[in-house]
Each structure stands twice: as structure tokens, then as C-alpha cells.
Amino acid sequence: MSNPSDYSVSDHWDGAFDEARFEAWAKQLRSGLSAETVDIGFVFATPGYGSALAEILEILQIHCQMKQLVGCTGNSLVSQGFEYEEGEGVSVALHSLPGAEIQSFELEGCEPGEDVPPHIWESLEKLDSASPNGFVVFADPFSVKSETMMQEFNSRFPGKPVLGGLASGTQSDRATQLFHNTKVLDSGAVGISIGGKVGIESAISQGCLPFGDSFTVTAAENNVLNGIANRNAYDVLSDAFDGLPDAMKMKSRGNIHIGFVIDEYQEEFVRGDFLVRNLIGADPKVGALLVGARPRVGQTLQFQMRDRHSAMEDLRERLDLLTVRIKGRSVYGGLLTTCTGRGNAFFKVSDFDASTIQDYMGPLGMSGFFGNGEFGPVGGVNFVHGYTAAAAFFVEQSLVCKTPRTLSGGEGNSNLV
User: Per-domain residue ranges for the chain?
Assistant: First the structure.
């Protein structure tokens, strides 16, 4: 368990569920938080607890005295500075957020292939009057069109960050669970809005290093990129690759992505200004690239390379910038959603994401999970990411509130998916 705190505490339960022992563990966890109230509790559990999940949630809400509880399943979990990538477990964090106004909500899911019915967003309409500063959302990847959901948040709440991610489970079952207070849900999404005197700041590490020059898209159709800078797209990629040092060429094989600039108003573009998407394939005969997005003519792009060293450097850089941005403001706790493609297998060391965050921001109570997709803003616009560490921090709300500028049409890439 993390050290006793006025604002947040977290711990990881290891192994099978035992009612008496788990209840004692929950009471001990609550005793580590000196605050009188627990405004929100985050709960993440590995698949396999089955019918015991409802009892686990009830014990936690009663004995940890949570006003509200949200969470989901994850095939690996985060607690404090540790990442638990093997075995059964439950990760719990308790947060006391002074002056926060918190509302929890549920969103219905829909069947695969169905259009999203408009009434699904009715729960969000009730949040408008709360003047939220940001959101934490967990969704089932099989019943929620996550890109559509992000667009809905961007439209209704421009400039307000959405953190969290897509729940994960066992590959064989293709099923996940969501938690809302004492309920276990098999579809849809759950989340909270946070308003009042507490805001959400984020560090979104997509783990890539830009290389070559930035270019303008000159021909594209759906997710096929045909022209870059009035040349065929394949030739531009080939030239950028040829310009790499030999050592980087070896690293980049199979690890090249494309980054699209979100805010075109900047004079220059650096790492962190791009929404990174997969390079799915290439056709040298026609000169086209197949990408995991729908690029638009006029957008700025730059090729990106992803490996463990660039991902390590990127996370540290995001956290450096965050500490400057929130200097002088109290940090009450954290939440980490990291990709199933990261972790020990990728970094070749254990606990890299979680321990690095604690090194920069801790000690603070932090929970989280390895997801099937990570939510977070880039350039003030929320997206669903892959291969990303999306860290949320609950902080004292800044007294300086900027009116968000909505990016649309030719002004930016808010509609890029």
C-alpha cells in the first residue's frame, strides 16, 4: 500500500478472492487515507473473478467508504509504481478531491455493425449543467464505437480532456466488464465528470520520434494516402527512410507510423504535436500508403518511428512538460491507462511507465490497467490511441481558465480518426 496520504492511496490485491481477507484488506486500505471522505474510487480487476466481482465491489464501496466507484477489467494492472502483468489481482485507488464536483454516469452499448442510436448520449446531456473540467471514461471495446464516442465528447465539451480507455480481458472470451458502484456491466461505458475546484491534467505519451521533414497531404481517399507534397506518398516515405542513419533504419523496420498535426496554427511541429496512427501497408506500384486514419488534403504529417528508446524518451519529455504546466498547483492523485503492447515485453524492464510517473509526480496514489485503447487529448482534442501511456492527474483547478478554440474544417484535424 502507498504511504498514508491526505488525498489518495492505492494498493494491489494479489490472488484469488477470499471474503474475510479481502474485507480486512479493504479496511486497511481505507485506514491509509487520512481524509474524512472518499470522493471517488477506481477499481480494476483481472478477468477470472466471475460472480465474485459484484461482492468485491460491494465490499470496497462499504468498507472503503467510497461515495462513487468506477472501473473495469484489465488483463494487467497498475498500482503505485508497479505494473502487475501476471496472475490474478485487483487494483484499487481511493481519492479525496477537495472542492470537486463529481458525477458518475453510464452509456449504453450497441450491437456490432449497428448505428449508434441518439438516445445513448442522453446521459451526457445531464452533465452539461455541472460545468465539468474533464472526464474519466472506461468502455467495452466490443459494444462501443469509441471513435464516435470521442467525437461526441469533443463536440459537447470542447477543450475538456477525456482520459481512461478501453477495457481488456482474455482474448479467447472477447468479453470485458465495467464497474459502476456495485454494478458489473458487460457492455457500454462508465465514467465520471469532475468539476469544481479540481481539474484533470494529462501526459499522453504515444512513444514515437518524428523523422524526416513535415509535409502536406495533397491527395487522399478514405484511409488511402496517395499524394504528399505533390509526389506519390510511397516515394516520400522511401526518401525519408533513406535519409535515416543505418542504426535507425534497423530500428525502424516494422515500427514506422504516421503523425498528423492537430493544430495547424503552430509555426513549427515537435514531438507531442502529432496524432500518431499506424502505417498499415504500402503499394510501390501505385505509390500509395494505407494508414489507420482518414487523412484530409491540406493536413500536415510527418513520419514517426517507435521503439523502446523513443518511447522512454517521449514519456519523460511529456512529464517534464507537465511538471512545468502545473507548477504551484496541488496534485491529488493519478490514473494510468497503458497499452497492452507496452510493459515488460516492449521495454525489456519491468514497471517502466508506472515507476517513471512516480519518479516525476510521486509519491501519489495511482491505479490503472493495460487497455485495448487509451483515451486522451492531443492538441486539445480527445482521441483513442494505441501503443500509448495515457496518464491522468487530478490537480487543483487553475484560476486561469482559457476559452477553448474548437478545431474544425480547415483549422485543424479534430475529425481525424
Answer: 8-205+312-411, 213-306
